[in-house]
Design brief:
Layout lengths: L6 H21 L3 H23 L8 H12 L1 H24 L16 H4 L7 H17 L5 H22 L1 H12 L8 H58 L2 H8 L9 E14 L3 H4 L10 H18 L7 E7 L2 E6 L3 H4 L6 H24 L6 E14 L5 E5 L1 H11 L6 E4 H7 L4 E9 L5 H4 L2 E9 L18 H27 L4 E3 L2 E4 L5 E4 L5 E3 L3
Parallel strand pairs: 4-6
Antiparallel strand pairs: 1-3, 1-4, 2-3, 4-5, 6-8, 7-8, 9-12, 10-11
Helix pairs in contact: 1-2, 1-4, 1-6, 2-4, 3-4, 4-6, 6-7, 6-9, 7-8, 7-9, 9-10, 9-18, 12-14
C-alpha cells in the first residue's frame, strides 16, 4: 500500500496545541500548575514530531530513524501516533477545568452582580472550556488520511467526557454563570446546553469533512487507476502502430517519421551511392496458378505463395541478414535491397552488405527446395542481383509506400528477367566485387539487356554458384522477430481496440443498469497459412456474468 506521509499533520497538531497554550497563558490565573502541565505536554508533542521526522535527519541515531521508517510504513503505528497527538491537545484543553476549586466559588444565588468580584478567575468563564475543547476537536480535521469513522469515534469520546464533566462534577459552574448573566431568567438556552449543541455541530462538521475527504481520496484513486490504465493502453496502441509502421517501412525511415512532427504532405527521399538490389521470381508459378473448384478458386495456390513469401521473410530475421530490407512483392517476384541503413553508408567495409545479399539469394534457393519437398512441387527461383546508386523515398501521404528507383534497380530486374531458372545472375561489376570475397562464379557471356544495351552495348554476366569460403555469421542465432511479424502486430492491435470497445460497452451498460457485453470475432490469415481467431468488430452478443 501507498505510504501516507503524516508529518505535516503532526506538526499542524502541534500548532493547535500552541494555540491552546496561548489561550491559557492569557486567561489562566494559576501560572505554576499551568507551566508544569504544558511543559509535560510540550515534551510529549516534541517527542511525536521527532519520531515522525527522524528519517530526514542523518545525525540522529539509526534506531530512531528505523523506527520512523517503520511508523511511516505501518498503518496501525501511524494511527497510534495520530491518536496520541489528538489526545495531547485534548488533555491540554480539558485539564484547565480540573484546576477549578468549586468550594471557593462564591454563593451567587444571594449576591448581586459585581464584575470586580466575579470575573477574576477563568473558572468564572465556563464557555472558555468549551471553546478550548472545540479547538482540540478541530485537530482531528488536520489528519486528512484518518478514517472518518475513527474520527467520529474519537470525537464522541471527547464529547462524552465533556458531557460527564459538565453534567455532574462541574455543572454548578454553568448554573452560576447563567444566574449572574440572566438573573434567573429561564426563557433562554442555557450555557451548558448551548455548549453541548456547539460541540455537536462541530462533531458533525468534522465528520462531514472527513467523509468528503474520503470520497475525494477514493475518487482520486479510481481516477489515477483509470488514467494509468488508459496511459498503458495508449502506450500499447502506440507500440502496435510503431510496429505496424516498421513492417511497412525500413527501421531508419520509420524513425524519421516517428521522432519528428511532420506534415502529411512532406516528401521523404534519400540518395544512396552503394546499395545492392535483388529480384527473385518464380517463373513456374503462373502455370501453377489456376482457379478451379479443386483449389478453391485459386485460394490454395495463393496460400502456398503466402507460405513461400513468409519463409523468405523469416530468413530476413536472421542476424546475418540484418542489413537487408524487403521492399515489396510483385506477384511471385520478391524484391530486397541491402545497404539502405545510414550506418552502412559510412562503414569501412563498403560492400559487406552486398555479400550478405548474395548469401541471402543462396538461402532463398535452399528455402524453395525445402518447400518443394513438403508441397510436392518443383518450383525454381530465378534471381538477379546488381549494385550501385539508387534514390529511395516514401510515396503517398495516407497510404505510404517505400520504394527505390534508379539504373541499378532496372539492371537488377533485367538480371532476373533474362536469367535462367535455378540460377543467380549478376553483371560484371557485381562479379568483380564478390569474387574476392569468397564466392564462386560461372561466366555466362554477353547478353542483350533492354534499356541498357542500347547505350552501353551488351552486358557481361555471371552465374553465382555459391560460397567457396564459409560465412562466419552463418551460425549466428536468429533474432526473435516473431512478435513483430505483421500478423502478430495486427492481432495485438485488434485485441487492444477490442478491449477499449468492450470497456466502453460495459461502462454504457452499467450506466443504464444493463450488464451485457459484446464479443467480436474475426479470422486473420497468418503467414503460415493457418487461420487464427482474432477479436474484432463482428457481432455476437453474450451476457456477462
Amino acid at each position: 500500500p501507498e505510504i501516507l506521509n503524516f508529518t505535516f499533520p503532526i506538526n499542524a497538531g502541534e500548532g493547535f496545541f500552541f494555540c491552546l497554550l496561548s489561550m491559557c497563558v492569557s486567561s489562566f490565573s494559576r501560572m505554576i500548575p499551568m507551566i508544569v502541565q504544558f511543559s509535560i505536554l510540550i515534551i510529549l508533542h516534541s517527542s511525536l514530531v521527532l519520531i515522525t521526522t527522524a528519517e530526514d535527519y542523518k545525525c540522529l541515531p539509526l534506531v530512531l530513524r528505523k523506527t520512523c521508517c517503520w511508523i511511516n510504513e505501518t498503518y496501525l503505528a501511524r494511527n497510534v501516533i495520530i491518536f496520541a497527538s489528538i489526545m495531547i491537545n485534548f488533555l491540554g484543553a480539558i485539564i484547565n477545568i480540573l484546576w477549578c476549586d468549586l468550594d471557593k466559588q462564591l454563593p451567587f444565588k444571594n449576591l448581586t452582580f459585581n464584575s470586580s468580584v466575579y470575573f477574576t478567575d477563568i473558572c468564572s468563564y465556563p464557555e472558555y472550556f468549551v471553546f478550548t475543547g472545540i479547538l482540540a476537536m478541530v485537530t482531528c480535521a488536520v489528519f486528512l488520511r484518518l478514517n472518518s469513522v475513527l474520527k467520529l469515534a474519537v470525537l464522541l469520546i471527547m464529547i462524552a467526557i465533556y458531557c460527564f464533566l459538565t453534567e455532574t462534577i462541574y455543572a454548578s459552574l454553568f448554573l452560576q454563570y447563567d444566574d449572574i448573566n440572566h438573573n434567573g431568567d429561564t426563557d433562554f438556552l442555557g450555557t451548558k446546553e448551548a455548549s453541548l449543541l456547539l460541540m455537536a455541530m462541530f462533531l458533525l462538521a468534522v465528520f462531514y469533512h472527513g467523509q468528503q475527504l474520503e470520497y475525494t481520496a477514493r475518487l482520486d484513486f479510481l481516477w489515477r487507476g483509470q488514467a494509468k490504465e488508459e496511459i498503458n493502453e495508449m502506450k500499447e496502441l502506440r507500440e502496435h502502430n510503431e510496429n505496424m509502421l516498421r513492417n511497412i517501412l525500413p527501421s531508419h525511415v520509420a524513425r524519421h517519421f516517428l521522432e519528428k512532427d511532420r506534415d502529411n504532405e512532406d516528401l521523404y527521399s534519400q540518395s544512396y551511392d552503394a546499395v545492392g538490389v535483388m529480384f527473385a521470381s518464380i517463373p513456374g508459378f503462373a502455370d501453377f496458378y489456376s482457379q478451379t473448384e479443386m483449389n478453391n478458386q485459386g485460394v490454395e495456390c495463393l496460400r502456398l505463395l503466402n507460405e513461400i513469401i513468409a519463409d523468405f521473410d523469416e530468413l530476413l530475421g536472421e542476424e546475418r541478414f540484418q542489413d537487408i530490407e524487403k521492399i515489396k512483392t510483385i506477384g511471385s517476384t520478391y524484391m530486397a535491397v541491402s545497404g539502405l541503413s545510414p550506418e552502412k553508408q559510412q562503414c569501412e567495409d563498403k560492400w559487406g552488405h552486398l555479400c550478405a545479399l548474395a548469401d541471402f539469394s543462396i538461402a532463398l534457393n535452399e528455402s524453395i527446395q525445402e518447400i518443394n519437398k513438403h508441397s510436392f512441387n518443383n518450383f525454381e527461383l530465378r534471381i538477379g542481383i546488381s549494385h550501385g546508386s539508387v534514390v529511395a523515398g516514401v510515396i503517398g501521404a495516407k497510404k505510404p509506400q517505400y520504394d527505390i528507383w534508379g539504373k541499378t534497380v532496372n539492371l537488377a530486374s533485367r538480371m532476373d528477367s533474362t536469367g535462367i531458372s535455378g540460377r543467380i545472375q549478376v553483371p560484371e561489376d557485381t562479379y568483380l566485387i564478390l569474387k574476392d570475397r569468397g564466392f564462386a562464379f560461372d561466366y555466362r557471356g554477353e547478353i542483350y539487356v533492354k534499356g541498357i544495351s542500347e547505350q552501353e552495348g551488351k552486358i557481361k554476366t555471371y552465374f553465382l554458384l555459391g560460397r567457396v569460403q564459409p560465412n562466419p555469421l552463418t551460425m549466428q542465432p536468429r533474432k526473435l522477430t516473431g512478435q513483430y511479424s505483421l500478423a502478430a502486430v495486427v492481432l495485438g492491435l485488434v485485441q487492444s481496440l477490442n478491449r477499449q470497445k468492450q470497456k466502453q460497452i460495459l461502462n454504457e451498460n452499467n450506466n443504464s443498469g444493463i450488464i451485457k457485453g459484446h464479443y467480436n470475432r474475426r479470422t486473420l490469415l497468418t503467414p503460415g497459412g493457418s487461420e487464427s481467431a482474432v477479436q474484432a468488430e463482428a457481432a455476437d452478443k453474450t451476457d456477462l456474468p
